[in-house]
Amino acid sequence: MASRTVKLSQTLYALWWVALLFVHLVAATFFGFFAYFYQFILANKFNYLATSLEENSIGMKPETYPTIAFFHGLVALPHGLVILRMLTATLFYRSFAYTIEPLDLKAPMYSLLGLKRREKAEPAKLAAKVLSSDQALITGLRRLAVKIRRSVWVKSLFERTGLFGVDGEYFHLILFCRETFETSLQTNQAYRMSYYLPRDVINRFYVGLIVLNCWSTPLILRLYKRDEAKKRFICLICDCILDLVAAVGIPCAIIATYINDYDMEIQGFPMSFWYEDIWYMHAIHEFQILFVTSWRDLATRAVFSISMIITMSDIKVLLGTRLVSRARENQVVGMELISPEAKVSAQKQKSTEITASASAPTVKDIFSAASPRTASSRVTSMRLESMQNRLRTASLALKNPTYRRRFTQFVHTFVILWGAIVLSLHIHAESMPVLTQCLLQVLIRHCPTFEMPPTLQQFSNLKVLKVYNSSIAEWLVDSALTRTNHPKMKSLFIARVNMSGGVLPPGLLSPDFPPSLADVELSTTNLRELPDDLDTKWPPGGQLMFEYSEFTSIPDVVMRLLPYLLSFCGNPIDAIPVDLLALKSIRYLHIGDNQKLKALPANAILSTSLIQFYIERTQIAFFPSWLDPVVNVTLSQGRRLIRAVGIPYCEYAKPIYNRSLSDADAMAAVQAKTKTPAMLGPGGPSMLMQTSTSTRQVIYGAVKCEEGTEWTFFPLATEDEQSALR
């Protein structure tokens, strides 16, 4: 069979070599980066980005991150090895090459290992040696096994003229089946992108690429019907481009949008970004494309990635193993040019081998003494031969001019119709008006007397509802948030809002309250009490914020809601319930910015699940001993438990945070300060109240007193900036 190689000039060959190397480099970098990102950043238990993704139901569960990282590393590895092989081959030949020919590598390896090449033994002596030794039989079996593997698996399947080879007899049939499968996955990917990506440019580009790929197939087959090598080469190029865009290009385009917003210090996006209306809506949808969201999504990415590697390998085969200079144009890499003398030598060698085989053991003789492994190889060989026979039968049918013409027409019609359908659906979707059921976010701003309309119940895909700088005069049951009408509701934000009577309106107290609405944030309101049966209506285990409101105590119903994040920052509360501190569900507790809070309870049990305790800008000056067990836990995890900026304790312990002072000088300065009566009780003192030299690092590692670290969970300043009247 004649070799099908694309004939290129030295310049074009070099350009293709550089282009393929660049693609491998981009792919290796991309998949390697994602492997590192999933394994060492997102898999971190306290990573802020991982927490944000989980809260917004983006991606898979954190326990799957190591598996996802392993997959990306597994895909990056072949690209890295191919890069190494290309560079090594280029240095070896001192010209552009993709791989080193085994025959060219044999002599340097012998020289490197200091071995001498053995001369060929005479056939008669070799046959006698084989027949006279049991060890030779074992060696023959091993060689036969290797030969079977090479001849059956490699040659029949993966070599250039094999079943899946680029010069294979069934190349176009297999390519058509493979592209049909991949295009179906890419069409599904385009649907997901049109559903999630809010930026029209990326959607249109990807859909256009799919349509062009479908329509280019019949065009390529017609333009290059007389040049089989170029026809296959261009088909592979189109396939590779689409796989590259699907697996690498689209995620990179999304990453480029957010790279400037990423904070390396916290290894995530600052909290204020998650409260910006446009940024948030873009992020929670575009991250569905960027991150792996299901095992099916991971399998789809695997198909694109593996297909890209296979396609690039076939492209290199069509380009030739390496570049040969013009002075040696009579040498074609990958083919044997046989001179007349060589032919005579080959015929002589062939006759000698036939003579030797007369006295050597036959394959049948060896199989008669074969091991079970050899028998298994024979079964595998028979199965592969049967598969080839079936494909050969199909191929003979396709070689019939009538059947071949009909099959070609079917392929052309199929891909053209597929492209037309994808394009038509995209145009139809873009021409559709904005439907109420498609709205994801509702913003209500600057309404002095607001009455929630029943229209709210038509927004079945609503995820975020925000009311800012308004007075809610009426929010009745007929416009309530319900599981039936708002099954995807995620967050409720109410800021700078007055509510009638200082209580929650009926529209937020439906018995059919959405269970997915686990993020309720109120800031700067006149709310002063909560219904006692709120735990029977609102879902448990969420995050609740009632910041800068008019609560004088923390309602008991809050404990029954089992929040993992709770904030009563800025409320005139004078005592913390002991039951709240022992709540096992709570991880973040904020009771700061409250001058009425003068002391912590004398006796309490603090939950070990607590990660951060905010008491900043209060009058607390004494830390009781019940803090110590949790302080020790957080110190072992490298976290600072207590945020205490602006409290009397921090004024007393100020020398501890002066890094220019030694431990002895800092604690001596603390001892010199006069303790106030508030710093002497109630309850037993914590180790944070000690003044020994060894205590300095404990206090510094547990209590955050540095100015500028004040914190409120709801970023009111950010909301004021983006929602102000203009």
From TrEMBL:
Keyword annotations: Membrane, Transmembrane, Transmembrane helix
Keyword RNA-binding part of the UniProt annotation: no
Transmembrane spans: 14-38, 68-93, 201-221, 233-259, 410-429
InterPro entries found in the cross-reference section: LRR_dom_sf
Protein known as: Uncharacterized protein
Organism: Globisporangium ultimum (strain ATCC 200006 / CBS 805.95 / DAOM BR144)
Lineage: Eukaryota, Sar, Stramenopiles, Oomycota, Peronosporomycetes
